[in-house]
Amino acid sequence: MSIRIGILGYGNLGRGVECALKQNPDMELTAVFTRRSPQDVKILTAGVPVYPVEQAEQMADKIDVLILCGGSATDLPVQTPKYAKLFNVVDSFDTHARIPEHFASVDNAAQSSGKVGIISVGWDPGMFSLNRMYANAVLPDGADYTFWGKGVSQGHSDAIRRIEGVRDARQYTIPVESALQAVRSGKNPELSTRQKHTRECFVVAEAGADTARIEREIKTMPNYFADYDTTVHFISEEELQKNHSGIPHGGFVIRCGKTGWNSENTHIIEYSLKLDSNPEFTSSIIVAYARAAYRMNQEGQKGCKTVFDVPPAYLSAKSGEELRKHLL
Ligand SMILES: NC(=O)C1=CN([C@@H]2O[C@H](COP(=O)(O)OP(=O)(O)OC[C@H]3O[C@@H](n4cnc5c(N)ncnc54)[C@H](OP(=O)(O)O)[C@@H]3O)[C@@H](O)[C@H]2O)C=CC1
Ligand SMILES: N[C@@H](C[C@H]1CC(C(=O)O)=NO1)C(=O)O
């Protein structure tokens, strides 16, 4: 029997999950839920209903995993603990500094409901988190570096769109080339947040909006922009659609570590991503973790999990026997 999936929140990520499900025949899309009027939300899959978000609770027995595709800035802190009371859930929560409190609120909900809630799934946090953890476990004596871009951060773009007076936005994250080169050379440089990346924002403001206030709110936004050198450009909707319609991204996790008793041998681990579509790639990761959430709950597991808690084999549609063949 297919794993029955619900999507809550239909934006870039919601569309991406819908696409990713097509590539996973052991899963099926049962319903999409939105805070807007359903007739305003046109999905890609024929025959799948779109419901007002208020109806989600009535479908708890018809959905095995509800994938939460809202924004991290303001949606997921409310939605994930709320729906973990009724469903196995997966979210992409990426406000790194607030992950511990998010974990606690989702765990409280999921422990009481007997469901599994896997949070902060994606590439960062997510695949990059796993690779930082593996590299630290393998090379305890070393230094970590993470670089993103140049590309469009969905979390930062979403955070700007939540500011009053903003109609649309794209945020580019840009790595500082000299910092990247120093890391790749194995010099293990001390780098501040500001020395590693800059951020460039393209914003469509509502007519008559106070653009000076918007720019100030962006540049001082904790956890997103306050620790970076950030530039803000105000452009028209037409310019945004023409010059900034794509959502490419990517990045690197690098760890340089040493081993040896007297002699010092240096090792460099690098994990890299080059993404044409940030949302479609992120959604492909989320769908694999939805499979794991279902399996873990079927085994009787409950509570909040992160990518560190999920056995890798649970992500794959292949059986244990098929996976072991990969190892040979
Ligand atoms: N961990 C990771 O590696 C990654 C995490 N993310 C996270 O994913 C989050 C979601 O990103 P993304 O999908 O790009 O955000 P969007 O802004 O596209 O969508 C967020 C929500 O806004 C609503 N929405 C979407 N389009 C419209 C519209 N035209 N008018 C009104 N409301 C709309 C939808 O809710 P509704 O249907 O209910 O209206 C949707 O769920 C980001 O905030 C980020 O934190 C993203 C990439 C990677
Ligand atoms: N969570 C990010 C994924 C990566 C990209 C990023 C950044 O550009 O700051 N940080 O983490 C996103 O929303 O796109």
TrEMBL record:
The keyword Oxidoreductase applies. It catalyses: meso-2,6-diaminopimelate + NADP(+) + H2O = (S)-2-amino-6-oxoheptanedioate + NH4(+) + NADPH + H(+). Keywords: Amino-acid biosynthesis, Diaminopimelate biosynthesis, Lysine biosynthesis, NADP, Nucleotide-binding, Oxidoreductase. GO terms for biological process: diaminopimelate biosynthetic process; lysine biosynthetic process via diaminopimelate. SUPFAM superfamilies: Glyceraldehyde-3-phosphate dehydrogenase-like, C-terminal domain (SSF55347), NAD(P)-binding Rossmann-fold domains (SSF51735). GO terms for molecular function: diaminopimelate dehydrogenase activity; nucleotide binding. It holds the Pfam family DAPDH_C. The keyword Ligase does not apply. InterPro entries: Diaminopimelate_DH_Ddh (IPR010190), Meso-DAP_DH_C (IPR032094), NAD(P)-bd_dom_sf (IPR036291). NADP(+) binds at residues 10-13, 34-36, 69-72, 92-94, 121-125. Pathway: Amino-acid biosynthesis; L-lysine biosynthesis via DAP pathway; DL-2,6-diaminopimelate from (S)-tetrahydrodipicolinate: step 1/1. Residues 122-277 form the Meso-diaminopimelate D-dehydrogenase C-terminal domain. Its EC number is 1.4.1.16. It comes from the Bacteria. Substrate binds at W148, T173, R199, H249, N278. Homodimer. Belongs to the diaminopimelate dehydrogenase family. This is Meso-diaminopimelate D-dehydrogenase. The lineage of its organism: Bacteria, Bacillati, Bacillota, Clostridia, Eubacteriales.
